[in-house]
Each structure stands twice: as structure tokens, then as C-alpha cells.
């Protein structure tokens, strides 16, 4: 408990004035709040909510204060202190709940206790979720709960249910447009647009997990990588639904986008809308897809689904995400019939799977293709009967499993999430390999022709030194490590000294190589390269330790070094550029040494530019 209290103590809430009668309450945490994949860059986070102060309507009627997008219980103590200084306890506070999950419901309960006249404004699916979660308490391991134990929760406040897009007049001349924006991951999403200021309070859309005191980003590039990372983690598996939301938002007279996490976007919001479209195009072009069916009572099963989806998407295979609690039967059936692999995840509630999951399982058993791989995943608090049910029914039904069922007690930690992500990548690679075999059979010579093209053969003559890239990130239970053989390496600058290295998007180590991350480049010696290459070219099971059995040394910055290398460089990633199926990283050298001045560098000779 002491460690948890220490982490919570670094959280604070700022009050940022936006307009007359409108302020932003921004919760700041410089440390990582959770282990979910979207926090993987470890740049802290911020949680934005917006308070419209009381005032008068256009006809002089008193209007109560309105709070938009309150944060989760992680910020409860400093948040409630700031809010209480702005809103008296007897005020008829209205709260627009743009995102419903157990963590936010925990804070809403505390709001209901402090402001008895509270009213909650929610979408139709959001109302269903609130009613389900209000009296439930998330099962957690001792000492890890965000929400302090209390007696019975207060009664659920009155609900103002927004069934379709609607407007609400606020005090001070402000007009709020409420826009339902359901997605599989956030079926209760409700966006808010203030028409007089052009402020779009976008919730999870366009968000980024980073700790920033500035109201708005300094320029587009200052947070572009963070927003792209958030998109890849959470938005990419539902790109079609996200594009539908973007279509609607482009019709609004936006001046500033203020997401639920990260700084506002005041200057480059049009570019960000275009980015969301562009980032979704690659997955939409894929001819292969994985159906990801899930339900999640407390968010843990959804976190596993996010990690699997991110891993699959790295390989260029499209993910079709389906929240079984809110999906239409016709859409579910279409996805099951058209997918190339199917993953189904469930929590265990009272010793059973939720009814929507049982119904979806029945559809899979009746309509699913036994020739296509399946997978089962989920979390549980005290028992895992739901996962046992899914596994036994699918095995008895003749389905072939792509991987052993993923069963997580309580919440997955960083190492487990990384292993789950790699499991998704392995599935994506399996599907791509099968597709390539099929293409060879149906179009004989197609692959050989591409490899024999003169330009492709010439590209293969571009040489690179053989190296092993190694990296370690984080500490304790959050410590992650990775490695890969790298041959697409080149010096890029004299001052400061720097080089580039290309990393395939599907590489497990890629998630550890974002701007600011350190790594070591171990340059191999000619004649002595086979040993290290055998270690790092062999297939690894998801989550396996790439350094198992090796005697390593450590750089001054804590990065793993191979003693048999000719030389080593410790560097920090400064820039990333997306290049088709690879990321090109530019890294500045911080330290390095030659270990064997008499040796020569091992070089990778290729006959074709179509492969490594």
C-alpha cells in the first residue's frame, strides 16, 4: 500500500482557463498509471475534463454548472479538491459522461456523495453500462485498488439519456452539442462540441498519453508520435467505425480539439483528422482479417484484446473488433464468416460467461470455418469457468487453436501484455505465410518473377554490416527487453554522431524503440558472426527472454552488450519515419567502444532486395 500511495502522491490537477465561464481541469501524472498497452511509451499521462460554470440562459433562466468528461478514480483526491473549490456542494451539477468504465464509475460514485443533486448525461449504451457497473466493485488483488473500500454506493443519480445527437444550452451563452460516437471498445462514447468557441471535447479520439502542463501542443510534431501510438494501440482495430466518427466531425466548425488525454490541438487539428484517415487506410487495404470478439466487465479482458489486436495489426492483417454486448447479430455473423482467424475473449462473472459471449459462441460453433485458426483469451478474479467453457466447446467443435488459451488472473502486467502482443504478431505472421503459399499455388512464378526483376536484384547489392540490436526498458515488474539481428544499418550524421537502422513493423522489439528510448548496437566481427546470429535468428515463443543463457555485459546506460562483438554503440532514438513495412530510426550515439581493433566488420551479402 505504501508504494501505491507514493505513486498517487505525484498526481495533481491544474485549473486552466479556456473561455469566460469555462475551465479545463487537467489531472497530471508523470508516471505510468497502468500497464495497458496504450501507456507503453511511459511518458506519464494527463486527464482532461471541462467545467462550464453556472450562469444564465438566453432568456435569463439560471443554468447549473456542467462538467464534461470527468476522469477516473486514479485522480480522485486532487480532482475532487479542485472541483469542490469551484462548485458548491448544493449545486445541481450535471456531468456529461463521455466514457463509461469501472474506474470512471468509481469517481462518479464519489461525485454523487459530494453533490447529492447530481445528474448524469450519457448515451443510450452508456446508460446501460452505468446501470450494470454502478453497484459492482472491481475484483482486485490486495493493495492495488484505485478505489478505496466503502460501504454501499450511493443511489444511481438521475440520467439524461442522449439517444441521438442533441443540443443543450448552458450558462454564459455557451451551447453544447452532444454527439454519440459508439465503437466496439467504447460503446458508450459521447463527444461534446461547444458551438460558440468551436471546442471539440473528443474523449478518447485524438488522445495521447503524455504529461503536459501546456493547454495546447506547441506544434504538430511535438506530440505526433504519441497520438499515432495511441491510435495504433486502440483505434486501429476499429478503423471503420473511427472513420465514420471522423466523417461527422469534419462537418463541425472546429477551432480546437481537446481530447481526454494530452494537450489540446489548436493549430493542426485538420491535419490530425487527415492522419486518422491515413493511418486507417493500410489496415483497410488488407485482404486478410482477424475477428476479435470480446466482452469486458472490468476492462482487463479488453486490455488483453487491445494487446492481441496491436500484435496482429503489426503484420498488416486487419482486425475486426466486435464488442459482443453491443453488436448487431447480422454484423457478428458477417465478420465470423469472412474472417481468416477468430479470437474470442470473456471475463468470468459469477462462475459463468456473460450471456452475449455465450450467444456469440453459439454463432461461431454454427457458422465458423473449422479450417481457420481460433484463440481464446480473458481475465478472471477468482475462477475461470468462462474460459474453460470457450476452450472446451471450440475444441469439441473441431476448431484448431492458434495458441494456448490466454488466462490472466486480475490484470495483466507489462511483461504479460508484451507476450500477448507477440502472440498476436505470431498469428498475423502465420496468416501471411499461408497467404503467400496460396498465392504461389494460384499464380505460379509470381514470387520468383518479383525476385528476379533487375531493380530488385540491384537493391539486394546494397550492403549493410551485421549487427545485433539489444535493448532493455523499464524496471522491476515493468522491465521489458528485446533484441534482433540488424543489417539495414548506416551512419547518418557526423555532428552529432548518428546512424539509422530499419526495423520491421512486426518485430517484437519495435515497441521498445520509440523517440527517447535507448538501445545498443553490437557490431559483429567477420568469422565470428554465426554464434550471435544463431541465438537471435531462432524463433522465440511469445514473451520468451531473448538473452536466456547468454553471458552479457552492460553499457553505462544499462543496455545489454555482447562480449564477442567487434564494437558496440549505445544510442538514443531521436526520430522515426514510417517506410512501408518498416520504421526507419535515426539514433544519436551517446557512448561506444571498439572491442577488437584487429577484426573486420561482418557484412550481409544478398542476392535480392525482396527479402533479408
In short:
By secondary structure, this protein is α/β, with parallel strands linked by helices. Helices cover 30% and strands 26% of the residues.
Sum up the structure in keywords.
612 residues, alpha/beta, Metallo-beta-lactamase, Chain A, Rossmann fold, Pnp Oxidase, Chain A, 3 domains, 7-stranded mixed β-sheet, 7-stranded antiparallel β-sheet, 15 helices, 26% strand, disordered N terminus
Describe the structure.
With 612 residues, this protein is α/β, with parallel strands linked by helices. It has 3 domains: 2-282, Ribonuclease Z/Hydroxyacylglutathione hydrolase-like (Metallo-beta-lactamase, Chain A); 286-430, Rossmann fold (3-Layer(aba) Sandwich); 458-604, Electron Transport, Fmn-binding Protein, Chain A (Pnp Oxidase, Chain A), CATH 2.30.110.10. Helix content is 30%, strand content 26%. The chain contains 15 helices and 30 strands. The protein has a 7-stranded mixed beta sheet. It has a 7-stranded antiparallel beta sheet with strand order 22-21-25-28-29-24-23. Strands 10-11-12-13-14 form a 5-stranded mixed beta sheet, with no helix packed on it. Helix 6 (239-249) runs antiparallel to helix 7 and helix 9 (329-338) crosses helix 10 (355-367). The chain starts with a helix and ends in an 8-residue tail after the last strand. The model is unreliable at 1-7, 142-147 and 445-449 (pLDDT under 50).
Amino acid at each position: 500500500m505504501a508504494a501505491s500511495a507514493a505513486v498517487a502522491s505525484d498526481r495533481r490537477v491544474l485549473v486552466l482557463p479556456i473561455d469566460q465561464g469555462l475551465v479545463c481541469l487537467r489531472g497530471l501524472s508523470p508516471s505510468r498509471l497502468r500497464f495497458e498497452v496504450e501507456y507503453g511509451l511511459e511518458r506519464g499521462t494527463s486527464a482532461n475534463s471541462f467545467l462550464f460554470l453556472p450562469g444564465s440562459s438566453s432568456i435569463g433562466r439560471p443554468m447549473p454548472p456542467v462538467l464534461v468528461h470527468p476522469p477516473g478514480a486514479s485522480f480522485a483526491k486532487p480532482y475532487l479538491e479542485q472541483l469542490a473549490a469551484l462548485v458548491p456542494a448544493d449545486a445541481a451539477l450535471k456531468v456529461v459522461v463521455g466514457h463509461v468504465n469501472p474506474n470512471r464509475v468509481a469517481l462518479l460514485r464519489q461525485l454523487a456523495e459530494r453533490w447529492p443533486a447530481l445528474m448524469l448525461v450519457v448515451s443510450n449504451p452508456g446508460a446501460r453500462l452505468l446501470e450494470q457497473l454502478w453497484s459492482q466493485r472491481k475484483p482486485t488483488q490486495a493493495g492495488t485498488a484505485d478505489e478505496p473500500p466503502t460501504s454501499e454506493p450511493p443511489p444511481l443519480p438521475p440520467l439524461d439519456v442522449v439517444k441521438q445527437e442533441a443540443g443543450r444550452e448552458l450558462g454564459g451563452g455557451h451551447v453544447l452539442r452532444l454527439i454519440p460516437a459508439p465503437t466496439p471498445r467504447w460503446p458508450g462514447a459521447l463527444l461534446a462540441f461547444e458551438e460558440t468557441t468551436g471546442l471539440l471535447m473528443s474523449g478518447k479520439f485524438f488522445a495521447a498519453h503524455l504529461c503536459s502542463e501546456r493547454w495546447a501542443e506547441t506544434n504538430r510534431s511535438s506530440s505526433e508520435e504519441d497520438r499515432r501510438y495511441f491510435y495504433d494501440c486502440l483505434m486501429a482495430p476499429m478503423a471503420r467505425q473511427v472513420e465514420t466518427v471522423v466523417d461527422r466531425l469534419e462537418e463541425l466548425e472546429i477551432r480546437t480539439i481537446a481530447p481526454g488525454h494530452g494537450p489540446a490541438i489548436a493549430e493542426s487539428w485538420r491535419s490530425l483528422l487527415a492522419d486518422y484517415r491515413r493511418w486507417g487506410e493500410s489496415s483497410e487495404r488488407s485482404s486478410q482479417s482477424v475477428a476479435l470478439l470480446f466482452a469486458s466487465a472490468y476492462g482487463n479482458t479488453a486490455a488483453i484484446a487491445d494487446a492481441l489486436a496491436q500484435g496482429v495489426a503489426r503484420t498488416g492483417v486487419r482486425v475486426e473488433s466486435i464488442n459482443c454486448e453491443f453488436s448487431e447479430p447480422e454484423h457478428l455473423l458477417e465478420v465470423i464468416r469472412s474472417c481468416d482467424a477468430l479470437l474470442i475473449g470473456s471475463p468470468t462473472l459469477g462462475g459463468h460467461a456473460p450471456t452475449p459471449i455465450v450467444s456469440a459462441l453459439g454463432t461461431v460453433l454454427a457458422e465458423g470455418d473449422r479450417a481457420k485458426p481460433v484463440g481464446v483469451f480473458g481475465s478472471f478474479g477468482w475462477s475461470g469457468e468462462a474460459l474453460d467453457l470457450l476452450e472446451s466447446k471450440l475444441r469439441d467443435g473441431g476448431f484448431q487453436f492458434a495458441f494456448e488459451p490466454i488466462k490472466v488472473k486480475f490484470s495483466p502486467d507489462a511483461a504479460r501484455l508484451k507476450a500477448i502482443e507477440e502472440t498476436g504478431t505470431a498469428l498475423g505472421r502465420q496468416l501471411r505465410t499461408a497467404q503467400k503459399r496460396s498465392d504461389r499455388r494460384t499464380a505460379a512464378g509470381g514470387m520468383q518473377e518479383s525476385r528476379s526483376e533487375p531493380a530488385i536484384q540491384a537493391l539486394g547489392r546494397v550492403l549493410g554490416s551485421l549487427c545485433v540490436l539489444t535493448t532493455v526498458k523499464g524496471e522491476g515488474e515493468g522491465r521489458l527487453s528485446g533484441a534482433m539481428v540488424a543489417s539495414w544499418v548506416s551512419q547518418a550524421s557526423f555532428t552529432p554522431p548518428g546512424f539509422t537502422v530499419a526495423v520491421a513493423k512486426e518485430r517484437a522489439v519495435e515497441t521498445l524503440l520509440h523517440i527517447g528510448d535507448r538501445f545498443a548496437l553490437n557490431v559483429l566481427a567477420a568469422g565470428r558472426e554465426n554464434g550471435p546470429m544463431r541465438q537471435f535468428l531462432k524463433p522465440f515463443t511469445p514473451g520468451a527472454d531473448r538473452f536466456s543463457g547468454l553471458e552479457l555485459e552492460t553499457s553505462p546506460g544499462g543496455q545489454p552488450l555482447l562480449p564477442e562483438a567487434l564494437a558496440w554503440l549505445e544510442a538514443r532514438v531521436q526520430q522515426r519515419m514510417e517506410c512501408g513495412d518498416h520504421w526507419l530510426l535515426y539514433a544519436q550515439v551517446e557512448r561506444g567502444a571498439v572491442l577488437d581493433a584487429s577484426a573486420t566488420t561482418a557484412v550481409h551479402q544478398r542476392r535480392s532486395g525482396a527479402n533479408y
